[in-house]
Amino acid sequence: MIGERRRPVMDADLVIRASLAWLLMAAVLLIAGLPAILGRQFNEGDDIMRLLQVRDWLAGQSWFDVSQYRIDAPYGSGMHWSRLVDVPLAAVILVLAPIFGQPAAEHVAAVVVPLATLWLAVLLIGRIAWKIGDEEATGLACLSAAIAAPLLHQMRPMRIDHHGWQIVLFMLAVNALMARDARRGGWILGGALALWLNISMEALPMVLGFGAILLVRWLRCWGDRLWLTSMMQALAAGSALLFLMTRGLAAGMPMCDAVAPAHIAALAIAAIGATGLARTETPRPLLFTLLVLGTCAVTGVVVLLQIAPQCAGGSFAGMDPMARDIWLANVIESQPLWHHPAHLAAQILVPALVAIVVSLRLAARSSAWLHRWHLEYTALLLAALAMAVLLPRSSGLVAALAAVPIGIQMKQWLRQLRKLNRPGKQAMAVAGMVASLLPAMPLTLLMQAAPSHASAPPSAAESCDVGGALAALGDEPANILAPIDMGPAVLLDSPHRVVATAHHRAHKGIGDTIRAFSGSDEAAHQILARRRIGFVMMCPSQAEVQFYRRMSGSSFADRLAEGSTPDWLMPITHEGDRNVLVWRVIG
Length: 587
Hints:
Among the domains are: 180-318, no CATH class; 466-585, Rossmann fold, CATH 3.40.50.12610. It is 62% helix and 3% strand. It has 25 helices and 5 strands. The chain starts with 11 loop residues before the first helix and ends with a strand.
């Protein structure tokens, strides 16, 4: 479709411009993140759990088994994560471990792999600008991507969870829409989406978005029907193949939070229906085409719910009520954008809205294939923005898309700065560049200029480093009751097990952790006995512990924080962080 300009798939100039933009931000990220890198401080508990999953695999756990046997103690818990994200990390560790040892190799992998995903994302973004613009617009699009905060958040050093790879696969899918050949483009698109779905079911809304765009292509021109059929074929076949590659033949219980046989069956039905309709060369009436494709889609959903009826309640159906109502309802990254600070909203909304306006203007000034392309790009921007508003942790997708129109607009603004002598228009161009590239700067400056006593800076009293405390527990694996957010840190450098980490598959452990800390001493004692807990650990200043204390004025957490220890707990002294309190269960 795209391709009036006969350019190769990848050009050396494109790679150079993308790499220069990447090198600039990689250096900034390394310098800014140096304390965290040197201190081996991961960004989130998910990053620690990802490293633990890689460790377990390299230590002999089956490729097909992604369970975490040290959470939901003493039982262990399954995980919905894909092994695919483990492969790049494991590759770096396997290469470097014989030379530097595994701890150092893990450390290097945690820095190198996120930066590698950033390079791939910038390259794919630059390729879109390079296909529809010129060299200057390409360089500026790459630069816009390389300084987009939502993008960098998911690809900075020590950020090794799957979100960066989601952005890379999303941009690969967008690039596939530009292919000259419908069959090849559809298969690349469907393959990218199959990989993305295997990594995370968060891809599903954008899968529907791409499908809608290809459906419009089909309805507009019967000859373009191969786009949708090829995408559906690749998506169904790729999902089945990836399931076998990562889960094996032992399907186990039906899953709703990861691609499973039920989802594959639904995709296969839709793909077969679309392929059958597309086999005829004679164009069918629009209403007939919609009716057939709609029937196939509905049939697929019915089959999905017949195989896995519990999926009608979503990915979190059947969760422990306490985990659902207290933990999941308060997970900030799952809250819509209006629950987040204004500066975060600005970082997501302002560049996206600028990009949408620019993309629509480009469509109005274009014709033929380029006009249609800009309209499709605008539709993708709107879909990604809607997803980011409802699920802000997906904001890297809209930031990546927005970089291309912003890069094209940046070229125009820079031209105005060079050629215009009127200060007013020059000021407007500068304001536009600041709003597009650094949307949170005005809010940050305003907050800095307006003194506020709403929150005090972090102090030593709020630290919670569990490393020193763990050394006092010995090397014999024990079951530990700790706050949910402390769980991954306990697991990272110890052989011990914890009742909970912030992962919904371990919802029973999450529920019991909340019940124990927010309930009475007697209720906590019963949970500890049932789970054979050997130690209790917490930091009274931790936000999660403060939350438990507010739930009940005489809770187990409240009494421990006040020093009122039940006689079945014995305080443990240690040489580590004094804010970390530890007790041995003695009865």
